[in-house]
Amino acid sequence: MIEIGKKAPDFTLKNQNGEKVSLKQFLGKKVVLYFYPKDMTSGCTVEACDFRDNIAALNNVNAIVLGVSPDSVELHKKFEAKHDLNFQLLSDVEKIVLEKYGVWKEKSMYGKKYMGVERTTVIIDEQGKISHIFAKVKVSGHVEAIKDALKG
Hints:
single chain; alpha+beta; Glutaredoxin; 7-stranded mixed sheet; two-stranded antiparallel ribbon; 5 helices; 29% helix; 30% strand
């Protein structure tokens, strides 16, 4: 399980362009690592567009945004193109990183249980340590909370 103050688990995943991206390549920057359930769904689209619309403010505080979901590289590419996203989406089809970060969980909808991503954002500091964990994220107002955390 991840913990504030501990080193963030490293990983390498492919982005929407099929390029390998490792967490360690961002040492020296703050990383806003947000885990979301599914491309092209309403809540995930609102969240992604909110990050897109606030990317300049995040970049101004030396932060980069990485979105992670179990969707394929191809679906990430379509999602990026459809919504003109300006950050990397990482594909974790095998759910290795989702499990490392403890966000692949049993969920329930209409009484039916299933496994899925619990919407979570982790902020990793310039030294690669976890500084903030936002669990069970509500999309509305979330990016504002991230910006406030990055200022503090």
